[in-house]
Model the fold of this input.
Amino acid sequence: MSLKTTIDAKGNGLYAVAINGRLDTDTAPQLEKQLEAVLAGDVRAVRFEMSGLDYLSSMGIRVLFKTFKALKQKKAMFLMANLQPQIKKVIEIAQALPPESIFSSVAEADAYFDAMQKKVLDSGDDES
Amino acid sequence: MAHRKPKKPSIAEDGSARSWKRLIPNRLEEVEGALLSFESFLSSGPVAEKTRFNAMLSLEEAVTNVIKYAFADDREHGIDVEARLGPSEIVIEVSDDGREFDPVSAPPPNFDLPFEERPVGGLGIHLLRKLTSRMAYERAGGRNLLTLVLELDP
Done:
């Protein structure tokens, strides 16, 4: 299989998606299908762990971009961590995803998610 | 009326392949096999990983565009792809008998829109422009010919 994806629900609305292999014309539809179930549910964030992603073409970027748009519509977060340098370059050239969705580690991405969630909860509690 | 230049010998002195040719049927499922073959070809020569990656991405974008946009009928068409590895550059030629389609003149995506409002299309051609050193398009004898050049040491 040239694309292997694992999806792990963390229980707090954060879905950890690890992508391994190639995301291209051939494999992009497969990822899109796998993300459908996540996007249909009560998702607060999708965090992509990309250290295993070796190749990304515009079809792959398209799926990531569609996922970003769908999450934005649900006021959920789109996070990417550990992009290989060449992959990061392609994403930057394509200018398809905002730079603030790119993190250099899973810990950083998750901390950002936690901080954002806390903000939402705190502002909800703030009755004054 | 021939539109091809004479071919250089395809095996270099050190045994590495210098040219690669493939006829790709116009179905998206056929792209993967062609790319893997192209990757082997690129790995046989002194091509840096980054350039190999860019060349593969460029080939994929160019061929995918042809498959998606060049043919108005349901018939099978063959897309001729040829690549040559020179001392300082890789030249990729993509040729098809579909309707006229010039990616070199296509308008760029609209980067002024906020991310979530941008349409999804146009990314492939934009990537092609940025990943290649030069691109040229020709229409001759009822065929599209797209030439992509990637420098080995940009």
User: Anything to note?
Assistant: Strands of chain B lie at 19-25, 78-85, 89-96, 134-140, 143-151. The interface with chain A takes residues 28-29, 31-32, 35, 49-50, 53, 56-57, 60-61, 64, 109, 111, 115-116, 118, 120, 123-124, 126-127, 130-131 of chain B (CB under 8 Å). Chain B has a mean pLDDT of 86.
